[in-house]
Amino acid sequence: MEKLRRNAGMEFNSNYLQNFETGTGDEDIIYRQRLQAGIDWNILKGGLFENTNKAKQAELQMAINNLNARQDKKQQEISARYAQVIYKFNIEKIRLLKKRKEILDAKTDLINSLHDLKEITNLEFIHFKQSLIDITTSLDIYDNYNYIFKEQFTPDSTEAFTLPLIDFDFATFLKNYAALGAAEDSILKLSIKALELQQSANHKINFKASLRYNYYDAFYSETARNFMSAGLSFSIPIGGGDGKQLTAAKTEMIKHNLTSGNREQLAEMMSYFYEFRSKLKQYLDLYEKNAEWAELLRIERVRMQYTDAEFNPVKSLKLLDEFLDQRIELLDVKQQLYLKLIQLNKYNPTANMQDYISLVELDSLEQNAMKFSLSKSVYVWSHAFENNNINFISEFLIKNDVDNAIISAGNDLVKALSRMDTLAKSNISSELLIGDNSLINKTPAQLQEYFSALFTYTGKPKFNALHLDVEPHTFDDWQQNKTQYYRKYSTMMQAAYKICEQKNKIKRIGTC
Q: Where are the alpha helices (DSSP H) in 201-312?
């Protein structure tokens, strides 16, 4: 461009001619030698104004190239985001598939034995084998994709399980979607301006100024002649059509090339949105089905705990496998929702898609896992703990999303510890509560002996915290000896903390 700007259209030219004889007839040649040298200045075509226009066209083309490059970069970022979403969801799918495989592998010998004993049908046995094959092939696909992804990209830390279920406001998105995006509109304007410069009359009209030195050596004179001459030349093409009509036609062609795909794009966008909403409906249907399967599993678990005659281990295994398979399918459908959203984003790369999405609230395990919540704990007093079936207590806690039970052992510590084992199998942690007001009056040595004996008796504790339910404020002399009881209370807590720290067996100690 700078070279074009510096080129003013001037050029030096010269010519020399040597004649060896004068010629005969009408073609008589009057000079022996002729030398001409001078400067031509092309002002319009091929010169000053055309070079200036060409420099402007080059600048416009560079601007168009930069806009195209930015659009390409946006498209590349969107494509990388597309791959990132697949990678994230694959991680969660792999986790669930491995869990399915672990469960089925653990039951393989049992299934084979039942099949040999004709306790299950050939069809049930085939379905079991098909599930294993399906898990293995799916794991290979997801593992291979994620391995290649990590070689090419840097994964971010967001987990697919934390991505919410979303809906998309397509009407608003479409309303804000112009026939041409900002970048395309800029490219159109720049292209038309470049075309106007290209079709300028300066490229067709020839206007040239010249300054020339002339030298002639004549045959019939002994004196050579030399002189200076200057001139102007002007030429313009005749015919060739109306330039304005040609410019208008080419302008329309540029517009057509940029906008011809607009209707097709709109149709594609509508198709993607239809698929998005179809996937959302599919997710909601699967969610309800998965909730049904969760309830069926709960019923089978209760049957197993109560040794119900109707409990069928093969049926339970099949239910559990289908439940996990549905969870994977839910992940896959949600993945498709996000991928459809990214595909819509490609039609308007500069749009902030968060402006058009809304959360779909579901009262599900998945939604609850995404919300910040504290762990639920309940006190289970000795009367309730001793007079209710432990399986009933366990199911009650599971049903109410309680994952920690603070248990008053009462007079039967052995029974309490045994029941803690049962709760642990349902992933419910336990904390031991000891209600004994006499502890506050024990000496440090007696307290050390008491807590040492407690841990010696329980062995490896089934509980992760110790609660001391000691209430000196209920004593008759509380008001008179309040300071003394505070001191004893502190001594009791220190002794309990010391032995717990020495044993390094429980997480914390507290009082009620």
A: 243-259, 262-305
